[in-house]
Amino acid sequence: MGRHPVGSPAVPFLQIVVLTIVQGITEFLPVSSSGHLVLVPLAGGWQDQGLVMDVAVHVGTLAAVLVYFWRDLGQILLGWLGGNWGRRDRRLGRALGFYLIVSAIPVLVVGAVVFLMAPQVFRNPELVAWATIGFGILLYVADRLGMTLRQIEHMTLGHAFLIGLFQVLALVPGASRSGVTMTAARWLGYERPEAARFAMLMSIPVIAASGAAAGYEVWKGGDPVVTQDALLAAALSFAVALLSIALLLALLRRVSFTPFVLYRLALGGGVLVWLYYLA
User: Fold this and answer.
1) Count of CB atoms situated within 10 Å of the CB of 229
2) What does the alpha-carbon distance between residue 189 and residue 168 come to, in Å, rounded to a whole number?
3) Residue 21, SS3?
4) Helix (H, G, I), strand (E, B), or coil: what is residue 190?
5) In terms of residue numbers, what domain contains 114?
6) Distance CA 45, CA 22 (A)
7) 5-36 per-position pLDDT tens digit
8) Please, is 263 exposed, middle or buried when counting C-beta atoms within 10 Å of its C-beta (0-12, 13-18, 19+)?
């Protein structure tokens, strides 16, 4: 299956719509959006859309995070720029911003190496399937054994860095960036909605960095068709992701992560059956 590099024919409109729906729904669910983006062209019989299109839909979801969590981001800005340093909300804002930066360092360093040295090394459906199953089981264990005592206000430097280390595992499609960070947060005793909230906030510097790298590739290639495709994909994924965030946070106040684990097991098992017996 060929890549879709800059300068190749435009991605079909139907493929863009499917990609944006899949990305918008799965980016913040613990089911691996990048794994789904590898599987979409395989299931639809399409050419692989390529890293630039993948990151375009991620940028759309980034915009959704910025809009949905504007209060948290405003608190961070007030904490860094405000004059009254003694107030509790500004102290918490400064701390949250610092923890987000610390948590992003490991994956940005390792991700830059992967992007420069071997950007396609992990785009393998079999790897996606096994990672979907394995990391799904880890999420189930963490969710069952982890206490539900902590909120983001209880975050520490050590916790932020540890969750950031787990985020490196998300470079493997199928692991799920949201899934591995929520797994780490649940092991540390954070409540489910709080684990999801921190995982979503952690996505901001990571998606921004990957979006900047892909944007440079589009600019360097100078292909207006690919640019238009990317903009359309980003806009559609923004709308779907905004709804997905609200639904996930509401759902996690009522249920555990078990439904997502069951989905991961079914998806991973189905892909393996298809690869080993039907393909």
Assistant:
1) 24
2) 20
3) helix
4) strand
5) 13-278
6) 16
7) 444 446 788 888 888 888 788 888 999 877 78
8) middle
Do residues 151 and 169 touch, judged by C-beta distance below 8 A?
A: no
Strand partners, 150: 190
Would you say residue 36 lies in a domain?
A: yes
* Residue 2 counted as domain residue: no
> What is Dmax (Cα atoms) for the chain?
65
Q: How many domains does the chain have?
A: 1
Amino acid at 166: F
Q: Is residue 1 part of a domain?
A: no
C-alpha to C-alpha distance for 183 and 52, rounded to whole angstroms: 28
pLDDT tens digits, one per residue of 166-210: 999 988 888 999 999 999 999 999 999 999 999 999 999 988 887
Backbone angles phi and psi of 150, in degrees to 5? -105, 150
Buried b (16+ CB within 10 A) or exposed e, 119-157: eeebbebebbbbbbbebbebbbebbeebeeebebeebee
Q: How far apart are CA 167 and CA 205, in angstroms?
A: 12
Its pTM stands at 0.86
Residue type, 184: A
DSSP state, 146? Answer: S
Adjacent-strand bridge partners of 190? 150
Give 129-144 as a 3 state SS string.
Answer: HHHHHHHHHHHHHHHH
Q: What is the DSSP letter of 274?
A: I
